[in-house]
Amino acid sequence: MNILSIFTNPYLWASTIAMAVPLALPAIGGTFSERAGVVNISMEGIMLISAFVSVAFSAYFHNAWLGLLAGVISGILVAYVFAWAAAKMYANQIVLGMAFNIFASGITAYLFNAIYGPEGTPFDTPKLPDVKIPVIDKIPIIGQILSGQNVMVYIMFVLIILSQWFLFKTTVGLRLRAVGENPEAAETAGIDVVKMKYLGVILGGAFSALGGAYLSIGVLNSFSPEMSSGRGYIALAAMIFGKWTPVGSFLASLLFGFATALSYTLQESSISKNIIMMLPYVVTILALIGIGGKSVAPAADGIPYRPKK
Amino acid sequence: MVKKALQSILMPLIAIFISMIVGGIVILITAKQNPIYAYIALFSGAYGNLMNFATTLTNAIPLIITGLGVAIAFSSGLFNIGAEGQFWIGAIVATYLGYQIKGLPWYLHIPFIIVCAMIAGALWGGLVPGLAKVYTGAHEVITTMMMSYIAIYFSHYLLEGGPMMDKGTIPQSPLIQDSAKLSILVPNTQLSSGLFIAILAVVVVYILMYKTTIGYELRAVGFNMKAARYAGINVARKLVLAMGLSGAFAGLAGAVQIMGVQHRLYDSFTSGYGYTAIVVALLANNNPIGVVIAALFLAGLSTGAQEMQMQTNISGQLADVVVGLIIFFIAIEELYRVIMEKIKTRKSKLEPVGGQE
């Protein structure tokens, strides 16, 4: 296969964007959470739970939108428990995240077997629609890349802009960031630290859940155990690489999305697919060790805070 | 002192108890079966007779060794959650040396494999995540996790038509030489003399962590990094060392699993031992003796879960659910403190100063 023809193929770029969605959404979610000072590595587990709940509801009600809604609600509920344990019980957030991830992988596999058995999710489970964008669709190459994507791709674009605006232009966004930087000062200024942590973690859960739903009823219309395959962790790396901003997280996710898309495209070539499948993980490590500049975490990130009152 | 020891045992016990109840509720709702029968099936499947117990012990061996490694990292304040990948690297090295090297007597072949697998695990777990942590601040949670996925895909690469694939169509490696196999302790089971390696590892880690300067310094770094630095400990070097040691034990576990149980590398996606080992270390509160107890419990849970699946048709994945819950209920230890305090204040309200009479 001609190497150049791989990169001029619009399909590669279209799938780069598609592959970035389940990374960018949890990465932005993680941004909210860590800006409020809570490290949530359970985004992996939340994605998995939402992916399962979305499929189950989508199959049962035969409506993918209901599936998406149920998935997001499940993500919010799980995140609520996480927020309670992190903000009210001052639990070690990494240990907590591990607990949630193991629980999520167990409960989804268990329920998957209990409900669907070896046949798996029903073949006629509806998936979220692909959308053709009227004018852009007609433009050559650009149309192939930007139009006809799954509806979640466009929802993601809207959410990126909204998130950036919310975090940096609104009072609540400012308060959220203040809590992650200096909770004591924030509390002195009259900000309810615990409430802000809840908000950050729950937003994180909702965004991760969107990413999880996209995996099961966006890209596909089925679920398989462990289908999140580490994306929650890669999303954390994207968030760091994106310097804890929504737009940055998205751009970093594009890079990882590209690595994933490339690994799929190159599967037809003579290089072993397993070697190429390592690419996104290698890129993540390279990104983390600072290729692309150093990024500094919110000062109080990951440290449990006990309110003075 | 006794009170503290009691508390450190009580906490995991409470967490286990609550988690079993929640797991029971899940059984009740989803499978509509009596959870008590399910748990009886689970425990007799784990410890009920010699064969079952031997299987539990067999599963406990990799958990003990990997758990020790994770505990070393935890004690030093590091979250090595990539033990799974280090385990695989150890297994890959052990398999390769196990079938490639021919004609060595077992007493040379086995130690050689052990040393190489430990070095490989140490490099995988220590070098990249440890150095990245020290020099760039990259969080070890993500780097070790990424290294895990890379290790797993690497093993797929080696086996699926790669350099380690055996003749035929099944993605598996050739069998290791007899000289690389650990002897079986209980006939008709898979319990091997790897058990002695696990016991030896416990003793070594206990002495290392509690009786040597290095161990003291590692724990000092974990206890308070700034104070350790102030006390003149080279923190950066200790962090890399802790990650390396942690990886070395995970690598050893992978090698013991190949030499004692599997005898070849399969293309199964994940062993899961590396993840469960994290729970082992948490339950054990990083204490080497505690690691043995926790490993026996968790190995029993997974062995018994299979038995439960056969007897009651309840999927064995329920074990993971319970494990996740256990960690959760350990993590929120604050809750017990809050509850205890509430009980105390209520008591003092009920008994006014001076008493009733």
Automatic annotation (TrEMBL), chain A:
| InterPro entries to which the protein is assigned, alphabetical | ABC_transp_permease
List keywords of the entry alphabetically.
Cell membrane, Membrane, Transmembrane, Transmembrane helix
User: Where is this protein chiefly located?
Assistant: membrane
GTP-binding among the record's keywords? no
Write out the transmembrane intervals: 12-33, 45-62, 68-87, 94-116, 151-168, 198-224, 244-266, 278-297
Subcellular localization, as worded in the UniProt entry: Cell membrane
CC annotations in GO: plasma membrane
Q: Which GO terms describe its molecular function?
A: transmembrane transporter activity
Q: Does the keyword Electron transport apply?
A: no
Q: What is the recorded membrane topology of this protein?
A: Multi-pass membrane protein
Pfam families to which the protein is assigned, alphabetical: BPD_transp_2
Instruction: From the Swiss-Prot or TrEMBL record, give the protein name.
Output: ABC transporter permease
TrEMBL record, chain B:
Task: Tell me one GO molecular function of this protein.
Answer: transmembrane transporter activity
How does the record say this protein sits in the membrane?
A: Multi-pass membrane protein
Keywords of the record: Cell membrane, Membrane, Transmembrane, Transmembrane helix
Q: Which residues cross the membrane?
A: 6-29, 36-54, 60-83, 104-125, 137-159, 191-209, 239-261, 273-301, 321-339
* Keyword match GTP-binding: no
Where is it located?
A: Cell membrane
Superkingdom to which the source organism belongs: Bacteria
What's the main place this protein lives? Answer: membrane
An example of a Gene Ontology cellular component annotation for this protein is: plasma membrane
What this protein is called in its record is ABC transporter permease
Record organism: Caldicellulosiruptor changbaiensis
